[in-house]
Design a protein that fits this description.
Radius of gyration: 16 Å
Number of strands: 10
Bound molecules: 2-amino-2-deoxy-6-O-phosphono-alpha-D-glucopyranose
Number of helices: 7
Distance between the termini: 22 Å
Strand order of the largest sheet: 1-10-9-6-2-3-5
Order of helices and strands: EHEHEEHEHEEHEHEHE
Structural class: alpha/beta
Largest sheet: 7 strands, parallel
Length: 235
């Protein structure tokens, strides 16, 4: 595991964008695994800027996102599809048909999990998977649990996750309690993994990177990934 300490969130965002841009330049039709949350906002803004300056070309890029809330349609402004459209996809020259998220509003969620795992596999697994981390060590929506879930699955969100994510909703009752997420096995199949974390995550990042590998700290599995980079910002 490569751990890179930077001073600020701006530096974190610029460096993460450098790594993603390098991937796109080296393999223009790469499959990017993408994440939502506050952490990647600066990274996406950097990528948008490079694209609008003509320094980066998303025309052949394909993407798969980690997760989605259950029960929200794509046009709901709290859905991760909406987040990705407004923060990245609508602002770069990507073909929307090449952007994929689990469908949180699918009538049969079990069938949706099978479909999404098969989709990620058929696209060849991500060349680079971007990750944030929850304060409890979750990646995607893989919450602390007795086992590492292998494949795309639905999950009951932890109380602490609902509380943390409620800052983005009008009231806590509006936060969906279920989500659909890539499994730990799905994430580990990415050829490269890039985890970004702000200063408020320093403690959990330390546990994940240097503590025991345990499903109680889902991100700790990344210690076993052959090409994982963590960028942690100091403030
Ligand atoms: C959510 C997402 C995760 C994300 C985490 C941290 O629960 N499902 O993929 O990494 O929150 O989010 P933030 O970056 O906003 O702290």
């Amino acid at each position: 595991m490569r751990i890179i300490h930077v001073d600020s969130y701006d530096q974190l965002s610029a460096l993460a964008a450098d790594i993603i841009a390098a991937q796109v330049i080296l393999k223009p039709d790469c499959l990017l695994g993408l994440a939502t949350g506050s952490s990647p906002l600066g990274t996406y803004a950097n990528l948008v800027e490079r694209c609008s300056q003509g320094r980066l070309d998303f025309s052949q890029v394909r993407t798969v996102n980690l997760d989605e809330y259950c029960g929200l349609t794509a046009d709901n402004d709290q859905s991760y599809r909406y987040f990705m459209d407004t923060n990245l996809f609508n602002k770069v020259n990507i073909d929307k048909a090449n952007t994929h998220l689990p469908d949180g509003s699918a009538p049969d969620m079990q069938a949706e999990c099978v479909r999404y795992e098969a989709l990620v596999e058929s696209l060849g697994w991500p060349d680079l998977q971007l990750l944030g981390i929850g304060h409890n060590g979750h990646i995607g929506f893989n919450e602390p649990a007795p086992d590492f879930p292998a494949q795309v699955h639905t999950v009951q969100l932890a109380e602490s996750t609902i509380k943390a994510n409620s800052r983005l909703f009008e009231k806590i009752e509006d936060v969906p309690t279920m989500a659909v997420t890539m499994g730990i096995g799905t994430i580990m199949k990415a050829r490269k993994v890039l985890l970004i974390a702000g200063a408020d995550k320093a403690e959990i990042v330390e546990k994940a990177c240097r503590g025991p590998v345990t499903p109680e700290v889902p991100a700790s599995i990344l210690q076993l990934h052959p090409d994982a980079t963590v960028i942690l910002s100091g403030k």
